[in-house]
Amino acid sequence: MDRATLVAVVAGVLQGIFEWLPISSEGNITVFLTALGSTPAAAVQFSLFLHAGTAISAAVYYRDELRSVLAGLPSWRPREAFADGHATLTFLAVATLASGVVGIAAYATLETAVSALTGGAFVAVVGVLLVATGVLLRVAGDGERDSRRPPSDGTGFGTRDDPDLLDAVLVGSLQGLAILPGVSRSGTTTSALLFRGHDGPSSFRLSFLLSIPAALGAGVLTLADGGVPGVAPAAGAVALATAAVVGYLTIDALMRVVERVPFWGVCVGLGALAMLGGAALAI
């Protein structure tokens, strides 16, 4: 196996695992590729491209759920957008639209920011964003514990069954911002849903369902913007297939782990290491 194929396989494995955790798969894969000598711009493009692989994983894993949601299309009406039986469908549609608007704007900003950063400085910025995500997860974790009792103090924490319009716009916008490396898509969207009063399992379910159109969009956006520089088509295909297979095999087990392990600490730890590594590279 040549070096390019080996790197593609490792990157695909990392994407297949990290995508389901509330830590930034894009940020960590970008750090990994940059450490191996890729330019920041190429590393970001490759990590965005790999999201299409885990989008396939999520679509296959949630195929029954998606089939049920899409079955409601013929009877969907704007007046009953968030009514029983249509809430998830409307949430996914509105949140995907918000993700697209915010994500395209963030992508344009990302290109400008990445072109101004090199080596260690870029890795350090990713580390700062990872630490910020970890802090958000820690605060949201406190909120999740509060959500087990009815809201009595005006905090807004509680247990809710269906998402509403504010959930869709808020979560969709945050997912659009997660195109920035180091900002965890699952971490920020799940945290927002926890803050809004949804329980843990519901928050992860909505977050992962929403990841499907967003991840496919990230892959398409990368290809439309000139492809993945410095990556041969064969290596790209290997990485994509690896991400899809590993993602499918690990999603169930990792969702169970996420419910038990404080991944905010993992996120902060990885961010701190990235900051230290970036500082070392910059010297």
In short:
Helix content is 74%, strand content 0%.
Characterization of this structure:
The two termini are 34 Å apart. Helix 1 crosses helix 3 and helix 8 runs antiparallel to helix 9. It contains 11 helices and no strands. It is mostly helical. The longest helix is centred in the middle third of the chain and has 29 residues. The radius of gyration is 19 Å and the shape is globular. The protein has one domain.
Distinctive features:
283 residues
- Based on CA atoms alone, the radius of gyration comes out at 19 Å
What oligomeric state do the depicted chains represent? single chain
Count of domain modules = 1
SS field, number of helical segments? 11
Mean pLDDT: 78
Overall spatial form: globular
Main structural class: mainly alpha
Fraction of residues in β-strands: under 5%
Percent helix = over 70%
Number of strands: 0
Largest sheet: none
Amino-to-carboxy terminus distance: 34 Å
Low-confidence runs? 143-158
SSE arrangement, N to C: HHHHHHHHHHH
